[in-house]
Each structure stands twice: as C-alpha cells, then as structure tokens.
Amino acid sequence: MDRPTTITVDLPALGHNLGAIRAAVGSARVMAVVKADAYGHGLVPVARHFAALGVEYLGVAFAEEGIALRRAGITTPILVLGGLFGPQLALFLRHDLEITVSSLAKLRQVEAAAAAVGGKARIHLKIDTGMERIGVHSETCGPFIEAAVASPWCEIRGIYSHLACADDPDSPMTQQQVERFADACAHFDRLGVAMPTRHLANSGGVLNFPQTHLDMVRPGIMLYGVYPDPACRRTVAVRPALSLRSQVVYFKVVGAGRSISYGATWRVARETRVVTVPIGYGDGFPRALSSKGQVLIRGQRHPIAGRVCMDQFMVDIGWGSAYNEDEVVLIGRQGAEAISVEDVAAWAGTIPYEILTGLNHRIPRSYLAPAAACD
Ligand SMILES: *Cc1c(COP(=O)(O)O)cnc(C)c1O
Q1: Are 126 and 192 in the same domain?
Q2: 48 found inside a domain
Q3: I need a surface site. Which of 62, 96, 174, 241 has the fewest CB within 10 A?
Q4: Structure pTM?
C-alpha cells in the first residue's frame, strides 16, 4: 500500500486536449512539449501516450530527457529545445535526438561531432526574434543559415524561434517577432533551397495568434489542460489532466489561544477542529501556500492553517466534520467544488507552470487509461 498522497493523470484528457489543438491549428503539425517531467505529469507515460496518438514530434529541454524517452522505446522524432552543451553532442547523435543549433560556433561543433561518427546530425536552426535567450538574431542570421545549408554533416529539419509575450493577446511584440522570423526564413527562398519545418507557437501563440501556427506548433501547458495566463483567449477548450489528492491522517480539537505549526503564525481565536494532511514542501507542495491555500474535504473548502511543513500541513475545518482517511483534494474536483492549478498558483504568488513542474517523485503517479477503442 502506497502513501495516501497521489497524483492521478487522466490520459483521455490529454488526448482530448491534443485533438482540440489539432482542430485549432489546421494543417500545422504538433510537437508535444514534455520537458520537466511532462510538466509534472510523468515524462515517459505521457510521451508514450502522445506518441501512440500520433503526435509528429516530442519536445524536451535537455538531452537526458530525450535519452529517457529513447530508452523507453519511443521512436517519435525528438527535438531538444535547450541551449546545446557541446560535450553532450555524442549523446545526441547516439540517441537520434534532433539538435537546436543556435550559433555559427555551435554549428561547427555539431559538424565536427557528426564527422567524427561519420553520420549526419539532424538540426533545427534557432533564430532569436526578441526573447534574447538563445538563437542567432534574425537581422544577422544570413551567414549562419548559408553555412548550415552548405554543411555536408547536417540535415536541416527545422527553423524556429520562441515568443516572449504570446500570453498577452494585446502585446505588439508577437507580430514583430512573426515578421522578424519571416525575414529569417526568407533566406531559404533567397538560397533557392527547400524550406524546412517552420515553428514558432507555444501555447500562448496557439491560443492568441493564429499567424504563429506556421508548419508546426509547440504547445506545452495547454496540452495538460491549463491556460498559460488568465489573460489568454480561451480559443481552444482544454481540460485539466492532473489531480492531486491526499487523505486525513490526524484529527484533533484545538482550543482558543493555541497556535498552529512552525512559527506559531496561525492563532486559534475560538475552539476549532484541525486535521493533518501528509504532504508538504518536500513533495513540491509550495510553502508559499502557508495560511493562503485551500483544500477540499467532504466537498467543502477549508484553509491551510499556518505554515506548510516539509511532509505535512494542517487544515482548520472549523465546525465541519472530517475523519481519518477522508479524501483531501489539493488540485482537482470533489463534489461540486474544484481547485485548479491556476487557483493554487495565484495563492502561492506564482504561475501554474511552477506549481506543476514542482510536484516531485516522492508523490506516486497513477494513470487513468483511455477507454478501449470500440471498432
Ligand atoms: C517550454 C517551451 C514551449 C512550450 O511552452 P508552453 O508555454 O508551455 O506552451 C515551446 N517552445 C519552447 C522553445 C519551449 O521552451
């Protein structure tokens, strides 16, 4: 028997979200971004599910994540989105990982590594159109693109850039980035060579800016049923796939004048009932939720009382009732009530991405399987 705290991932919801994105982007292909443990949902099971659904690409941040997918037997093309660390190049080539090439110097490193093993590297050229993270500035990328096109050691599979403000439908930045990216891509026409796959849109781009869809889109957070920002247009209906639940492990009555948890910050004014829940910041449940967050017990919302500890926290249920082993919902639905990742992020003063990716592997994950196909 596992500990009573679990993450449940609804695989059919992931499939639904992929389908909704496909319907919104027309003929554009989809790269499912599964970095950071598939946004906390579990890298291999989630990637395997998307691969089974026929997603054209998987996107990860680091070579290690791609290698884990290859070791799991996944054969879908994988692009490593992060900045290339040259000494890892042999790993990229050995595991058939597509490489983000973000400068002329990196291109030369890739060529040398490919020549050393006598094979071609599959690469995507990274253009910087305003993020100032990695990539060659669009204004000066001509020689970089020419060198890549001329290289006998590289197969150019894509050209891409990343949007800095796509969450905000009113920001003029995205259109500027679209134009700069088009200028970069125009070098392929000028050179008279076939255009590789052009990709630009993250979830914000998918939702707010159809002109960013191009040949392929790279959604992350919305695949998991979460909108990147409250300001985003909800042009694609997605539903959350992850729920986080625990169970009551202790019940007590606390008298007036006592305090709860470290630092004695939660003062009990009137006698109340308090339960203890066995999950804490050591699981990635943020300490910033101390006296700010809420949970669901017996269909009612109750406040987290005092500081979240490493392995447990307390909930003030007032004169509500609760028993040992009652279900506690931290993210998800219970009866008529629901707590979303967006709610938790707002209470903790952060973004949903950080809440999801923070949930670590001390919490066991289980997967709701897709309904059997009836054919
Ligand atoms: C993380 C990432 C994405 C996905 O972003 P979301 O906002 O989660 O959709 C897309 N492209 C790149 C380059 C990324 O690093």
Answers
A1: yes
A2: yes
A3: 96
A4: 0.97
For ligand 1, the distance from its centroid to the CA atom of residue 127, given in whole angstroms, is: 15
Residue with tokens 């000028």: 190
Distances from the Cα of 9 to the Cα of 123, 269, 330, angstroms: 33, 39, 14
Which ranges of 74-224 would DSSP assign to H, the alpha helix? 89-94, 104-117, 142-150, 173-191, 203-208
Q: Are residues 219 and 246 in the same domain?
A: no
Does residue 204 lie in a domain region? yes
Please check whether residues 78 and 211 belong to one and the same domain: yes
Enumerate residue ranges in the chain where pLDDT < 50. 375
Boundaries of domain holding 124: 11-224
**Residue 371: what pLDDT?**
66
pLDDT at 370: 78
In this structure, are 197 and 250 located in the same domain? no
Q: Ligand 1 pocket check: which of 33, 65, 174, 207 to mutate, most ligand atoms within 8 Å of Cβ?
A: 33
At 175 the pLDDT is: 98
Q: Which of 239, 233, 82 is nearest to 166 (CA)?
A: 233
Q: Catalytic site residue 35?
A: yes
Query: Distance, CA 40 to ligand 1 centroid (Å)?
Result: 14
Domain end marker among 224, 250, 267: 224
Q: What tokens does 291 get? A: 């006296």
Output the 3-class SS for 227-249.
CCCCCCCCCCCCCCCEEEEEECC
Q: How far is the CA of 192 from the centre of ligand 1 (A)?
A: 31
